[in-house]
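Problem 12. The chain below contains 118 residues. Write out its predicted structure in token notation.
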Amino acid sequence: MHKLTRKEEELMKILWKLKKGFVKDLVDQYPDPKPHYNTISSLVRLLQEKGIVGYTQYGNTYEYYPLVSREEYRKSFMKGVISDYFDNSYKNAVAFFVNEKGLKPEELEEILRMIRKE
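Solution.
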């Protein structure tokens, strides 16, 4: 799966929330100052070319929808982060959060319970 840029991720978060929408609907979901219609139109076409967004055509208008679920993207993204930044080690990733981000003992215990269930 293609890695998304920050702007593409921002647009996908909106599309995942809406489930489907026309460019105008997507633009309306942005905070002020809203991006230009043509900017979002170009961005959604790029996502369509990457196979992440599909569309239904109604005459000259297109209604877009995600082809990749938020969960599918999250899994792919996190695998990339673990591979690129933690030498493909989940242990190193957890250690990072324990040491650098103040993962609390009770949160770590909850993680261990989740692991033991699987």
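Discussion. Strands lie at 53-58, 61-66. Students who got a different answer should revisit the alignment rule from Section 12.3.
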